[in-house]
Amino acid sequence: MKDKKINKHIGETLKNHRIKNGYTQEQVAELMDLAPKYISQIERGISAGTIDTLIRFCNLYNITTDAILYPLLDSSIKSSNQKYNNDFKKLCNRDQKAIENLIQYYLNN
Question: How many Å apart are CA 27 and CA 25, to the nearest integer?
């Protein structure tokens, strides 16, 4: 996918989440200590922003980066990911928690 399409998708997604959260561009700019013009450029796909800025948007809008980036992944990655998500959801809460704990154990060791 070309950079312009990626920037446009990210910008539109961020704009939709801003509106959903009831913020104006000026409010977002103030809360994130950025220029309103910069927020506008990101939402219009003119500027890509930085990873740091993307994470700050996610924290402000209470979303994960998946909400923004997942649609940009190749379909083969999505289908593999979806299979694991669907399988995980079939497990009872106790088993899900056990797997989460196991993953956390391996990440910490």
Answer: 5
Model pTM score: 0.70
Lookup: tokens for 6: 């990626």
- What is the architecture, at CATH level 2, of domain 3-72? Orthogonal Bundle (1.10)
- Write the CB contacts of 105 (distance below 8 Å, at least 6 apart in sequence): none
Dist CA 15 CA 25 (whole Å): 9
List the domain boundaries for the chain.
3-72, 75-108
Name every residue whose Cβ is closer than 8 Å to that of residue 88 and which is 6 or more positions away in sequence: 96, 99
The stretch 32-46 carries a mean pLDDT of 97
Judged against a pLDDT cut of 90, whether residue 20 lies above it is answered with: yes
Tokens representing residue 44 in the block: 């219009």
CB 68 within 8 A of CB 58: yes
